[in-house]
Amino acid sequence: MQGSANLNLMIKAARKAGRSLVKDFREVENLQVSAKGPGDFVTKADREAERIIRDELMGGRPTYGWLGEETGETAGQDPTRRWIVDPLDGTTNFLHGLPHWAVSIALEHKGEIVSAVVYDPAKDEMFWAEKGAGAWMNESRIRVSGRRHMIEAIFATGVPFGGRGTLPATLQDLARLMPVCAGVRRWGSAALDLAYVAAGRYDGYWERGIQAWDMAAGLLLVREAGGFVGAVRTGDDPMEKGAVLAGNGALYEPFAKVIRGE
Ligand code: IPD
């Protein structure tokens, strides 16, 4: 499968940032045992990855706009196109030496995500999609799962940490969902949670209180893999509200009903 020139640029940027992050991740594993811990080091690794991605993408497409987790928003000469980048999604995992984190890059055109890359360097899994061209993992086409019964399904979420205000709502979601499904996972990377829904590994995912850069690429992956995405509240825009719900075609509605308490 041949991607567009933009997609190839995104893949190149993700691989380059991934190499830098893998090198730093090895160092983080060593720093776990030090008294100071790897906190400052990880902040630097995260910023360096964003610098690498920005240099690649803005070097190749200098007129596009930019939204990055570390460097914020920069309007482009071309107001219709914007990169949306999370250089390190799953920072807490990275900090603790857990090999489950990703680089997430999306291209938005006229308010719609048209190309997406979520790269997991620790497992060398490159998830990518383009509008109308399907979703892929490395060289293989991926699709959402075919499960049709809630009781067989596994869902992923992020449980808010550090006193975030969305904790009580999430605990209520869990109380409603856990008795009617096969399990809930909380692995700590929203971008990979969505990529895993696209790959049929999870049957659905929801999370409150996340940012556009955590989900932009993953939303297109799920859509192009044949799944549905929306917001936790019916009719909202997930990127605007920071509350996302995704699932395969058969389970999206029943799953959404449980999360919405309907
Ligand atoms: C975090 C991850 C995590 C989610 C958090 C996000 P970051 O992103 O996506 O899964 O639960 O809400 O902040 O900070 O590692 O880029």
TrEMBL record:
Cofactor: Mg(2+)
Enzyme class: hydrolase
EC code(s) of this entry: 3.1.3.25
Keyword Glycoprotein among record annotations: no
CDD domains: IMPase
Reaction catalysis annotation: a myo-inositol phosphate + H2O = myo-inositol + phosphate
A single MF term (Gene Ontology): hydrolase activity
Keywords, alphabetical: Hydrolase, Magnesium, Metal-binding
UniProt keyword annotation of Hydrolase present: yes
Pfam families cross-referenced by the UniProt entry: Inositol_P
Entry-linked InterPro entries: IMPase, Inositol_monoP_metal-BS, Inositol_monophosphatase-like, Inositol_monophosphatase_CS, Inositol_monophosphatase_SuhB
Protein family per UniProt: Belongs to the inositol monophosphatase superfamily.
PANTHER family given in the database record: INOSITOL MONOPHOSPHATASE, INOSITOL-1-MONOPHOSPHATASE-RELATED
Protein's name according to its UniProt entry: Inositol-1-monophosphatase
The species this protein was found in: Ruixingdingia sedimenti
